[in-house]
Protein 1
Amino acid sequence: MEKPLVLVVDDEPDIRELLSITLERMKLRVETTEDLTSARKMLDSGRFQLCLTDMRLPDGDGLELVEWIQEKHSGIPVAVITAHGNVETAVRALKIGAFDFVSKPVQVGDLRKIVDTALRLERSETGAEGDTPLIGQSSSMADLRRLIAKVARSQAPVHITGESGTGKELVARLIHDSGPRGKAPFAPVNCGAIPTELMESELFGHRKGSFTGATEDKEGMIRSAEGGTLFLDEIGDLPLHMQVKLLRVIQERSVRPVGENREVPVDVRFLSASHRDLGSMVARGEFREDLFYRLNVIEICVPPLREREGDVLLLADHILARLGAGMDLSPPALTRSARRKLKQHSFPGNVRELENILERALTLSEAGRIDADDIQLRTPQASTGSEAAESADGGLGSQLEDVEREAIVQALEQTRYNKTAAAKLLGISFRALRYRIKKLGLE
C-alpha cells in the first residue's frame, strides 16, 4: 500500500526540513512548498491526504489556505502551525474548518497525534446522515445530521445547546462515533452530579495519599478519555474555580492530578453541553468568558420536539418498537385517536417525555394496541374562579407528585438507571425508591 502523502507549507527552509524528516520517520511521504500560490497548485493535483501550513506566508496567511481548502478540497484535513500561546489564532483556524493546530516549537509527540488522527479520517468516514440513531424527517433534523457529519471530521471543541430531553448526549456520541476517534473511549461527565469537593479528583485524578481517603492512584475522567472524547454535560454547573483549571487543560493539552507535581500530556477532544444560556451566564459573571470562548468554537443547537414537524409519530413508532422488543412483545399499534393526541401535545420535556409517556401507555394498553385513554399527558391547566376552587384540593398533591417524579427520573438518568445508586443520590432507601417508582407509574 502506498504511503500517505503530506504537504508542508512554510516559508522557513529549516522548518520545512525539520517537519519533513519527522514525518518521513513516521513512514509518510512529504512534499513541501513555501507560499500560498504554489500550495494551491499542488493541492489541486488531488494527491495529498493531509496538509500542514504555517500561519505566516509570503503571499498571504494560513487561514486563507484553510478557507480555500474547505471550499475546493474539503476532504483534505488541514492543520495549522501557530505561535506558542496564540490562542485566538488557533480558535479562528478551527472555526473556519482547520482539522487541528500545533504550536511552535513543534513537539514530535503532538505532531504524531495530529497526523495519526487525521489519517484515520478516511477509515472512519461513516456518513452521519446514513444509518443514524437521530430519528426524524423534519428539515431541522436533516440540517442537524449534516452539521454533525461536518464537525465529526474536525478536532475543534463543540458546544451543544438545547432544552432538557432533546438528546444532547446522543448528538455528542454521534459526533464521536462518526469521527476518527470513534474506536477510542467516549467519557461522559455530568458536571452537575459531582459534589464540588470531589470534582477536581474526579476530573483530573489524584495520587495515593494526596488527601484523606486517597488510598490508591486514580486516573480521572479526562485521562480515561485518552485518544477519544470527553463529553462535559451541563457544563454551566461547573464551579468557577474548576473552570480555571479546565481552561488550562484545554489550552495546554495536559492535566495535573491532585498531589502530582508535574503535568501529564493528554490527547482528548472536548465536547460540552448545557440547557442553560452560557452567553448570559458570562454576562452575569457566572461563567468565565475565556472558557466559553474555547468551548464554543463550534455550536450545535438541538431543536425541541415541538419544532420538529411530523417527527413525533415517527419517533413514537420507533420507541414503541424498541420497548416492545425489550419486553418480548410484538410492536403495539397506536390507534388513530392516540396518534392525534400525541400530535396535539407540545412536549415540554421533549423526546425524554415522549419515551416516558409511551412506556407508561404500553403498560396500560390491552389487546396489542394503545388508545388515547392509555396516553396520560401531564399538561398544566390554567384555571380560574370556580374551576380553581374545585381543583384546589387535588392541585397541591398533583404538583408535589410532579416534582417527586421529575427528581426520581433525573436521579435514575444520572445513575444510568441503577436503582441502588439512585436511591443513595436521593437520600432514601432502596425499598422506598421501589415503592415510589411503582406508585408514580414509572415502572
Protein 2
Amino acid sequence: MRILHVAHQQWRNYGDTRVSWAQKLLHGLIRCGYQVRPFGDRDTAAFLAPLGIRQLGERAANRALLQTVEAYQPDLVIVGHCPAITNTTLEAMRQRCPAVTIAVCNNDPLFVPENAARIAQRCTVADAIFVSTGAPELRRFSGQRARLWHMPNPVDPAVERADCSQRETFDHDLLFCSKSNDLTERGKLVAGLREALAGELRFHTPGSFGVPGVWGRHYDDTLAVSKMGLNLNRQEGWHWYASARMAQMGGNGLLLFTHADAHFDSLFPEETLVYFRELEDLKRAVMRFHHDDDLRRHYAANTRHFFHTEMNIDLYARYIVEASLGLHWSHDYAWLEHARA
C-alpha cells in the first residue's frame, strides 16, 4: 500500500523540534510496513517561495502536492494540520488518482473556533476525519462526506524512552509545561497550586511564571528527571480530549494528574491516571502521591504500560489506515467504544 503523508514535517527546525503527533504517525506507518512518502506542506511552500517567504509559496506548494500525487499514485493520502492545502487541491487529487482515499487528522481542540471551522470545511471533501476528541463531541460535524473518528495521542517507543516510574531521585517533583494563555484560565489553577505547595515540593513550570520554555532535546531531558506531571488543557470537560503532553508525560512514566470531566476513566484502566476537579482535590492528590512513593510508582508504571501497549504508534497507524479504508480491525483498540461519531 502506498501512503502519502502530508503534514508539518519540521524540516527547517534543524533538530530543535517539538514532539509531534504527525511525526509519530509517520514513524508508525513505516513501522507497520506501509510504503510512505512524506510531504512537508510548510517547508515546501518556503522552498518554492520568493525570498523564502512561506505565504508567497503556498500556491506553488499546492501544485507540487498534486504533482506528487500524480507521480506516486497513492492508495491513501493522510493530511494533517495543513491550512495552506486547499479543498480544491484535495478534490483535484481524485481527478489525478481516482481510487485514492483522503483522510484528515486534526489534533487541536474543538473549543478553538478557527479549528472547529477547519474541521467543518474538510468534512465536505475528506473521506475520513480523525480528531483527538471523543466521538460524542464530533457529532456536530456529521452529515457531510467524511466519516468522523476519534484518535488518541500515541506514544513512540523511540521518543518516550524514559521510565520515571522506576526512578527514585528527581530534579523536579511536579511538572507543568505550557506557554499558551489563549481561551483558558488554567493559569489561575496553576498559580493557586504553586502558592499552596510552596516549600512542599519542587514545582517546575517551563513556559509559565517567567520560566523559559523547553523544546526538543531539552524537553526530553526535562521529562526524564520529573516525578509527576499535570495534564491541564486550556479548557476541560471535552470528552477524551487532552493535549499531546498527556502521552509525552505518561509514556515517560510520570505520574499523571488530569481533570475528571474528560471521562478518561472510561478509557484508561483503574490505578493509572489520577483525577481531580478542583484545586483542593488536586492539592490533596499531589501531596498524597508525593509522600507515598510506592503508590506513585504503581500508578505511573500502570499508565506507562497502558500507553506503550495500547496507545503506541503501531496501533495508532494501523487504526487510521483501517478506519480510513473500511478494513476489518486487526486489533481490539482500547478506544473503539467511542471511536466513531
